[in-house]
Amino acid sequence: MVNETSGANAESGTYQANGARLAVDEINQAGGVLGRPLNIDIEDNQSTNPGSVLALSKLGGAVAIITSIRSTQTLAIMPRIARAGVPTMVGGTDFTLTHANNPWIFRARPHDGYSALVIADFGATTLKKKRWAIVHSTEAFGIGGKDHLIEALKKFDIKPLLIQGVNNNTQDYTPAALAVKRADVDIVAIYLASPADVGNFALALRHAGVDRVLIGSPSMSAIAAMRLGGEALFNSYSISDYVADANPQALAYAKKYQARWGLEPDLYSSWAYDAVHILALAMKNAGGTSPDALRKALLAIHGYKGVEGGYNYDVNGDGLHGYNVVKNEHGKIVFIKHVAFQPE
């Protein structure tokens, strides 16, 4: 597994490693895969694209790969994955990851084509907001999310009044916050990849005296974002692939994760947990670990009830087809509803 063990996103990497290790332990306690124990090697990518390339190079001989959750890091290693021909589970939500004619890519989270549809509909229909700003990170995830949201808002005859890009790990979000203030909007849609960036931007809005409805991508409801943003994120909305109250599997996972690690889980751990279990299931169904057989077995998975929802893999390698809508009520994530779409 390529993981953000160190660097700017090390906290997210800890959650991902914890989720994967919990799944491996469960599988091995149940007898392993095809009578053999499952082993996971974790290589640190230092939270960077070059580090991801180096980490992947150290995983030679792996029968399957799990990437980090960052779309931009996954894009950096996709050519090598294509050449290696190894089934790879990804957690990045950039739409293009599973639409780049790379037959070895499989996703264990919903893509941002879905997230934009849910954000647009909930913001325009339920919250009845018409004057939108979009603040996004200037990498694959943020740009892709922004583009899909602009398109989704057209259904409601809404053209964003402000589209503001910011670099990952920006030190000062004051200029972006002031741009939102000048734009006279009534809702701010946020596609920032890092929970730290979400928290810092929310604090900058609060310091600038900007009191607007906030709605955004799953990073808004990540534990690290909520801890940093504090009251500045109260009453904000988010779409999220993981929330404990969404289904029985998610609730059971929350209890197991907390019992094992003494922490509440979030999406950074849940997708990795599901990814390991799905790969193990595919190995069992394939009767081995040959790349072609494993790929076919992954595509054949339908109706698998995971922590993140029901997995039904389509021809592109996307397994999840929907998002949860949640609200931050005084620091507690409250489930509102699940929105599902038909697989391609």
3D structure, described in words:
This protein is of the alpha/beta class. It has 2 domains: 2-110 and 245-313, Rossmann fold (3-Layer(aba) Sandwich), CATH 3.40.50; 112-240 and 325-340, Rossmann fold (3-Layer(aba) Sandwich), CATH 3.40.50. Helix content is 42%, strand content 18%. The protein has 11 helices and 14 strands. The protein has helices at 10-29, 49-57, 71-84, 112-126, 140-153, 174-183, 195-207, 223-229, 248-261, 267-286, 291-299, and strands at 2-3, 43-44, 65-66, 88-90, 105-107, 132-137, 162-166, 187-191, 213-216, 237-240, 302-306, 309-312, 322-329, 332-340. The strands form 4 sheets. The chain has a 7-stranded mixed sheet, sandwiched between helices. Helix 1 runs parallel beside helix 10 (267-286) and helix 10 (267-286) packs across helix 11. It is globular. The two termini are 28 Å apart. The model has no long low-confidence stretch (mean pLDDT 97).
The percent range for helix content is 40-55%
Biggest sheet: strand arrangement: 7-6-8-9-10-13-14
Number of domains: 2
C-alpha termini separation: 28 Å
Report the C-alpha radius of gyration, rounded: 19 Å
Share in β-strands = 15-25%
* Total beta-strand segments: 14
Element order: H for helix, E for strand: EHEHEHEEHEHEHEHEHEHHHEEEE
Give the biggest beta sheet. Answer: 7 strands, mixed
Would you tell me the overall average pLDDT? 97
Shape: globular
Low-confidence stretches: none
CATH topology label of the largest domain: Rossmann fold
Oligomer: single chain
The CATH superfamily label of the largest domain reads Response regulator
- CATH architecture classification of the largest domain: 3-Layer(aba) Sandwich
